[in-house]
Design goal:
heterodimer; A: alpha/beta; Rossmann fold; 2 domains; four-stranded antiparallel sheet; 10 helices; 10 strands; about 40% helix; about 25% strand; B: about 300 residues; mainly alpha; 11 helices; 2 strands; globular; disordered C terminus; binds adenosine-5'-triphosphate; binds magnesium ion
């Protein structure tokens, strides 16, 4: 299968802090690829370079074969790359409905938007009951669902998920990951950033491990799960 | 003072206060929409108001252009000036300096530039008046005397406010602007073009200021210093909570009414103290302003 996203030798820095150096990564169409690493390894930075919120100083990023590293962020969204950011970045003062509408900001196909809204309710029935509630008053799990729903409203081809398990109860983590699997079965390609290596390796086909802004290890998730050093460092023995 | 006179003063104070208050409310609205999205108090708002007044004066009185050209031309000029300032100057400043204080200083710079430009043209040397486009005949409302011009000012200001409320709440563009105010990163992640959004908001803020100038110009003597009225708009914004659009408008009317009441009941020399009095009272009763959200410590 061909690669939907190809990141090649990218570097990025915040002022004098080098956050990424020569990172390469590929996401084949239709796959779930995991990007692991401890706090501050550069996972979110990698996603933000793809979303064009953080500029790269070298290397290239291709989406469906096209170089996108010079695009403005809104063009990245239009082309179908949607990031689900870490840390509950909802529009707090807006209703759930308005948040979902904002997800479709770059679209104008009313029929398609309506169909995707139904699809979001299908994945997250809870959101339908909360349409008028202010997003800031939702529980952590509901906000995570809203974030994924908002991204789905854009009609994405590639989802960049940043730590969807963060701060959720084990039951909710199971639920969210079941939905991630379903989204993937329904045709969505996913780049999944996680600190929870066990669950990420369990639900992806291929994985990369970042350490201090550099790619330390990569391989099929199944292989990494049995790798001794990975087990010691990321799977707790 | 007997009761009869007090009642007349009360009515007159409210009527006149609503008229001057509508101008403060418009300018406060212009300040708050920028503050909510750029987190910068635009200290040039008064000078944008002043310069727009002079553009209209120049086109109408000196170039003798018809009013249906003067009005849109003034609004377009105000929109472009503010939008380009945001795009060219502020984006450049923001690129080299991370601290918001430099953006604030840049707005102070703009205020000096605009004042300087108007002074250079010489139009600002002598106070001038803008001809009224509607009759200035008085009518009585209750026991208050107001002019047709006053009623036009109030009516037009309310219409402009209503239009902006509709825009912010019921259009895609307005919703995107609110989204940028709440969470710029999330707004970018759903595809909002941040630069364009900021430009549009600054442009709109210029248009609102220009409308305020066009409305009040026939009632005042225009000078290059007329922008100092913006202090009252800042007071209105503070009374309203500084990040609330309804707050800015209610604050504007409160400042206008308090100012007129102080003038009528106390002394016209005490008028300058009125806005501070209003701020003091409101902040003592409600430190977050009338429409400000709950005071919370920002979590990191
Ligand atoms: N806006 C920023 N300004 C300065 N430095 C930053 C910024 N964002 C991230 N960094 C730094 O870049 C490095 C990588 O951060 P990044 O957020 O990509 O890590 P991460 O792998 O996502 O970590 P976590 O698992 O904690 O989310 C860290 O050292 C971090 O301190
Ligand atoms: Mg992160």
């Amino acid at each position: 299968m061909h690669d939907l996203l190809e990141i090649e030798g990218i570097s990025a820095s915040y002022g004098r802090i080098q956050a990424l150096s020569e990172v390469s990564l590929r996401v084949p169409e239709g796959a779930i690829v995991a990007l692991l690493g401890s706090n501050g390894a550069g996972k979110s930075t990698t996603l933000n370079t793809v979303s064009r919120l953080v500029p790269i100083t070298r290397g290239s990023i291709r989406f469906a074969g096209e170089p996108i590293q010079a695009w403005p962020s809104h063009k990245v969204v239009s082309s179908g790359i949607l990031q689900v950011p870490e840390g509950r970045e909802v529009f707090r003062e807006m209703s759930v409905r308005e948040n979902l509408d904002m997800g479709a900001y770059r679209r104008s196909d009313a029929a398609g938007i309506k169909r995707d809204l139904e699809r979001v309710f299908d994945y997250f029935p809870k959101l339908r009951e909360r349409l008028r509630q202010k997003a800031g008053t939702l529980s952590g799990g509901e906000q995570q669902m809203l974030l994924i729903g908002r991204a789905l409203m854009a009609g994405p081809r590639l989802l960049l998920l940043d730590e969807p398990s963060l701060g959720l109860s084990p039951v909710l983590v199971q639920q969210i990951f079941a939905i991630i699997q379903r989204l993937n079965k329904d045709g969505l390609t996913i780049l999944l950033v996680e600190q929870n290596a066990a669950i990420a390796l369990g639900s992806s086909s291929y994985a990369y491990i970042l350490e201090n802004g550099e790619m330390a290890l990569e391989g099929p998730s199944e292989t990494l799960r049995r790798d001794d050093s990975v087990r010691r460092t990321y799977l707790g023995g | 003072m007997d009761l009869q006179l007090a009642l007349i003063f009360l009515q007159q104070g409210i009527a006149s206060g609503l008229v001057s208050g509508s101008i403060y409310a418009l300018l406060a609205l212009a300040i708050v929409i920028i503050f909510k999205t750029s987190e910068v108090p635009n200290f040039a708002q008064g000078e944008v108001f002043m310069a727009a007044g002079y553009v209209a004066l120049y086109l109408f009185v000196f170039q003798k252009l018809p009013i249906w050209i003067v009005l849109p031309a003034t609004l377009v000029a105000a929109f472009l000036a503010m939008a380009l300032f945001r795009r060219i100057v502020l984006d450049q400043v923001a690129k080299s300096a991370k601290d918001l204080v430099y953006l604030v200083i840049a707005t102070l710079g703009l205020s000096y530039v605009l004042k300087g430009l108007v002074r250079r043209t010489g139009f600002g040397d002598t106070p001038r008046s803008f001809p009224a486009l509607v009759p200035t005949d008085s009518v009585m409302i209750g026991q208050a005397s107001v002019t047709i011009l006053d009623l036009t000012i109030l009516g037009a200001a309310l219409a402009v406010m209503a239009a902006f409320f509709w825009m912010f709440n019921y259009t895609k563009m307005g919703r995107a602007m609110r989204a940028v105010g709440m969470n710029p990163k999330a707004a970018q992640l759903v595809g909002v073009d941040l630069k364009r959004c900021h430009m549009t908001i600054w442009g709109m803020s210029g248009v609102i200021s220009a409308i305020a100038a066009l409305l009040i110009a026939p009632k005042i003597l225009m000078t290059a210093d007329m922008g100092s009225i913006v202090m009252l708009a800042f007071a209105a914004a503070i009374v309203g909570g500084f990040s609330s659009l309804p707050g800015a408008i209610v604050g504007g009317f409160i400042i206008g009414i308090v100012e007129n009441m102080v003038g009528l009941f106390i002394s016209s020399r005490a008028i300058v103290l009125a806005p501070f009095l209003a701020i003091l009272i409101v902040l003592v009763i409600r430190p977050q302003g009338l429409f400000g959200g709950k005071l919370t410590i920002k979590k990191v």
